[in-house]
Each structure stands twice: as C-alpha cells, then as structure tokens.
C-alpha cells in the first residue's frame, strides 16, 4: 500500500506511557530508565549526525491525495533530511520518500535537468528540483506542485493542457519543398535558434505566467518558443514560415504576452523566452504591414 | 483518478512577496494607466461643472487649490503620470527588443527617476497652501 497516510512515530512511546497500571509501576520505572538511556544515546547519535544545524534540512512538502481520506484536505508535511554536499531538492525528496514516507509522490527521471519532469514550486518560485541546490535555499524549504495546474497528487500536476498547447504549434520540422539530400543549416541560423532548441518541456514557464493562468487558450511561453525554433529555421522555407506565423498571430497567440518576464526568469534552461516572443510579435507586425 | 485539487487564483496576488521586477512593472503600469484614465474623467467632470462663467471657474479652481488634499493628490498624479511615461518608454524598448537583459534595471531606474522628480516637485505643488 503506497497511499498510506504516514503514522507519527513519536506517538507510540506516549501511548505506552498511558497504559501503565499500578501493578506495573516498577516495571515501568525500569522501562523509563531504559527509555531515558536510549533517548540520550539517540540524541548523541543524532548530534553526531547533525554536528551543526546545517547538516539537516527541513522540508515542508505539499500533500494531497483525493483517494485517501486523511489527505483530501491539502496540508504540508515536515521532513528533516540529512544533508550532504551537493544535495538537490530532488535528492532530498527522494530521501524523504525512501526513508520516511513511501507514499510521497512526485515525478522525476533523469536527475540531470534534461527530462523536464520535476519542475516544482520551491520557496515561491518555479524551479527544476534536480537542478536546485539545497544550499542555495533558505530554510525551511517549501516544496509545492506547480501553480496554475491542477494537482493530481502531492507534487504531481496535470500537464495535459501544457502538452496540448505545445502540440498546437506543430512542434516538428516540416517543409513543403522536397529536399535534395541533406537539409543543412547555416551556422548563423543554427546560432539564432540555439537557445530556443533547449526547451525540455518542464512547464515551469507556463506555470509562472499569470496571463496563461487567466487565459486558458493562450499558447504560453514554451509553445511560442517552440514555434520560434521552427519559424526562424530558414530550412522550412517561406511558405511554412507564413503558416507558422498564422498560428502565432491568432488572438490567443503572441499578442497575449504582456512582457512580465516571469517565464524568462524561471526557465531552467535560460531560454530568453520574452525576447523570442517579442521578436515573433515584430515578425507578425511585419507580416501584416506590407507597405514597404 | 477522477478528482484533482484546484488551488484557484488566490495564490496569485497572495504571493506578491515573491514577485520580481517585471511583474511589479506590469502591475504598476496597469495601475497607473487606469488611475490616469480615472483622473481624465474626473478632470473633465469637474471643469465642465465650472464653465458657467469666468468667476465660477476662477472660484472653483481657487477653492480646490486651497485644499491641502488636492495639492497632495496633485503630487500623486504627477508620480503616477511620470512613472507611467517612463515605464511606457521602457516597454517601448522591450517591444523593440532593445536591452531585454536589463529590463529589471530599467524598471528600477524608472522608479528611482519617478521618485526624484516627485520629491523635487513637492515644493512647487504645496507652495502657498499652508
Ligand atoms: C507619454 C505618455 C504615455 C506613454 C509612453 C504610455 C505608454 C503605455 C504603454 C507602452 C502601454 C502598454 C503596456 C503593455 O504593453 O502592457 C500603456 C498602457 C496603458 N496606458 Fe499608457 N502611456 C502614456 C500615457 C497614458 C495616459 C495619459 C493614460 C490615461 C489617460 C494612459 C493609460 C493607459 C492604460 C489604462 C494602459 C493599460 C492598458 C491595458 O490594460 O492593457 N497612458 N501605456
Ligand atoms: S521554455 Fe524553459 S521553462 Fe518553459 S518548458 Fe521549456 S525548459 Fe521549461
Ligand atoms: S529529473 Fe529530469 S529534469 Fe529533473
């Protein structure tokens, strides 16, 4: 059973204490002594492990599960995770899951900022947990699922809408001209689209955008960036560029962007998203003003 | 999985402490823009009720200008207008794709310059009201 609500370990000893009867007094006395000895030993061990405060990190993790009675109301759980140098938020979550509560649910795969599955809201900002060092964060570290997406369970959000928007811009190379052999790209053109190719579909940008939050039809930064990657690719040809601009020029395309720069700020791949969106706006204007 | 938890929109402005420069610039720009629109209508309304004659007009203006609140509101109006203009220029640069890497700095510059201009204007605005 992986969906159990975690039990509080500390509660067991206090429950024991309540059960004592008069006849058991001496036995309980002995037990108490043992407990005290054990406690001091545990404390020594814990102190050894956490010789300074920095050696454990306190994580406050968002919990929610519609299928478990005790978790239908969202809450935050505390996890004290022993720290080692280089530990990321994802490492800490995995430690918490493996050692404290196996029902703690979150997405991850590559652990090296390339699969894009672990974007989360950490200390008030969209971040890729595997790329976020605990040492860069203030304690307690608050881990929440991405805002503006519906929470399925704990840190897992529904990405369907994000993927729909990505698909809407036809995120694949296409051209109407029949290629003669290899379709080589010029170095300059490759440089131009270089940053836009780095997107890992993590959804951090979309989650940070409050325009996207208020307008479900807005393509969003990642999809527009994806469109930029192909619109600016000279090999697709003029006709295809026209087709791509028509998608972007729609009411819920590039014009929704209000240059808040939130997406650019959070993108773990440092893609200059606002810059790309602005450039496409200018392309769209040029496309419609044909008097020069 | 049929249920999911929707945190709604409350989280947005409840998280203002976490907003960064571009977001603040956006909020201030919208706010100042709408204040300016509001002022424009008030302005037209007030002046058009004072158009019954030269004396009525002079009296209206003199009464208004003798009130400290009005003087303070004028300082506020200047602040709002200056910020809107300066940040409007910043947004123009952003639209042209100029200096996007320094967009946060140009926001802080707009703020600082607005502050300086407003402070410098205070003596002129409140002169003679005390
Ligand atoms: C030199 C003077 C001004 C400049 C440079 C300027 C510039 C701008 C710019 C660039 C925007 C677009 C912001 C965006 O992209 O989101 C804007 C928005 C706005 N401006 Fe101005 N503006 C000026 C004067 C005014 C005045 C006098 C008023 C009021 C009568 C005004 C009211 C507004 C409003 C209400 C908006 C927000 C529109 C919206 O909701 O999108 N502005 N301004
Ligand atoms: S553009 Fe950046 S933040 Fe947005 S999905 Fe791609 S990698 Fe993530
Ligand atoms: S686990 Fe793959 S991007 Fe973080």
UniProtKB/TrEMBL annotation, chain A:
Coiled coil: none annotated. Keywords: 2Fe-2S, 4Fe-4S, Iron, Iron-sulfur, Metal-binding, Oxidoreductase. InterPro entries: 2Fe-2S_ferredoxin-like_sf, 2Fe-2S_ferredoxin-type, 4Fe4S_Fe-S-bd, Beta-grasp_dom_sf, Helical_ferredxn, SDH/FRD_Iron-Sulfur, Succ_DH/fum_Rdtase_Fe-S, Succ_DH/fum_Rdtase_N. Pathway: Carbohydrate metabolism; tricarboxylic acid cycle. GO terms for biological process: respiratory electron transport chain; tricarboxylic acid cycle. Residues 59-163 form the Succinate dehydogenase/fumarate reductase N-terminal domain. GO terms for molecular function: 2 iron, 2 sulfur cluster binding; 4 iron, 4 sulfur cluster binding; electron transfer activity; metal ion binding; oxidoreductase activity. Residues 197-271 form the 4Fe-4S ferredoxin-type domain. Residues 16-26 have a biased composition (Low complexity). This is Succinate dehydrogenase / fumarate reductase iron-sulfur subunit. It comes from Halogeometricum limi.
UniProtKB/TrEMBL annotation, chain B:
InterPro entries: SdhC_prok, SQR/QFR_C/D, Succ_DH_cytb556, SuccDH_FuR_B_TM-su. Keywords: Heme, Iron, Membrane, Metal-binding, Transmembrane, Transmembrane helix. SUPFAM superfamilies: Fumarate reductase respiratory complex transmembrane subunits (SSF81343). Its main location: membrane. The chain crosses the membrane at residues 31-56, 68-86, 106-129. It comes from the Archaea. One of its GO terms (cellular component) is membrane. It is found in: Membrane. It holds the Pfam family Sdh_cyt. GO terms for biological process: tricarboxylic acid cycle. GO terms for molecular function: electron transfer activity; metal ion binding. This is Succinate dehydrogenase subunit C. The lineage of its organism: Archaea, Methanobacteriati, Methanobacteriota, Stenosarchaea group, Halobacteria.
